[in-house]
């Protein structure tokens, strides 16, 4: 016997519903090159699934390869961080606005949840401008109860704030909600909030853990799979 349906399904956006992680990597690679750094796989944990501010801070840290290349004062560092974050956001927005394809199975899963009357929301670590562009483009017509961006909570992923806030907006216990994620940071955020997590990895592997269920693709996921996530110890 399967459990009842989740109180709500909370979807990550980048790399989960839309294939934007590659666009974000390209953006980070271009900005890093402008700062004199060649992005490699070693940078991936600080780029993939991370908020703009986190990636910007990483790029500032590694600029030029030594501490002497970094801005010399706190004010200089803050200004450099703001410039880099703005460049990342603007470049990523232009790429997303040009069109980001849905991940396989995303459209069918969203339609099935809507048909079953299961509420769902978008919980993203991307800036509001990027979230709105994707919702108006690739995800146009999807009936999200609401969308949360990195701008809507004090702390974004990997902190629990986004998923806790989403559960609160549904007036639901986080433990009765299922988060659908693709990245280590997003999974950590949902874990810390107390949600069950369905992990569909994209660019980075996600380690197994308590409360985590794995699928290779959203094409393998339906309401039964999501409901079963609530039973996973």
What does this structure look like?
The chain is an alpha/beta fold. Helix content is 41%, strand content 9%. The protein contains eight helices and six strands; from the N terminus they run βααααβαβαβαββα. A six-stranded parallel beta sheet has the order 3-2-1-4-5-6, with helices on both faces. The protein is globular and about 55 Å long. The two termini are 16 Å apart.
List descriptors.
single chain; 233 residues; alpha/beta; six-stranded parallel β-sheet; 41% helix; globular
Provide a quick synopsis of the model.
By secondary structure, this protein is of the alpha/beta class. The protein has eight helices and six strands; from the N terminus they run βααααβαβαβαββα.
